[in-house]
Amino acid sequence: MTHVEQAPITHSAELLSAPEDDYMSPRQLAFFRRLLSQQRDELMQSADTTLDHLREVPRLAEDGDRAQLEEEYALELRIRDRERKLLRKIDEALDRIDHGDYGWCLETGEPIGLQRLLIRPTATLSIEGQEIKETRETRYRH
Fold first, then answer.
1. Do 56 and 120 have their domain in common?
2. Comparing C-alpha atoms, which of 10, 13, 16, 9 is closest to residue 114?
3. How much is the CA Rg of the chain, to the nearest whole Å?
């Protein structure tokens, strides 16, 4: 019996139409690896653009202009901080792919689900797992 190499999954519709027992097959993992890597590349490019922008120090005579520029820089830095955290989550998701844990809920061990992973490829919890976590957090806060 010869092994036939299947073409990579290129669209989410193809991913979602796969049989249930294909969940986290090598083809699906390759799809998510490409998706996460693409997001990682975009974040890195955005970070480079921000650094270049922050290095450009215009000479501003008016205090209002300087204040506005400082506000813009502060906003950019907050956005980059959020992106830095997302970058860490992307790297962790790529590690889970490498170790065979990707797509499985850390709370319940059940599948996270393709729909959820398409929306949030860095997800570590299924909807049920997220509800369990939130219930536990609420219980311990009071």
1. no
2. 16
3. 21
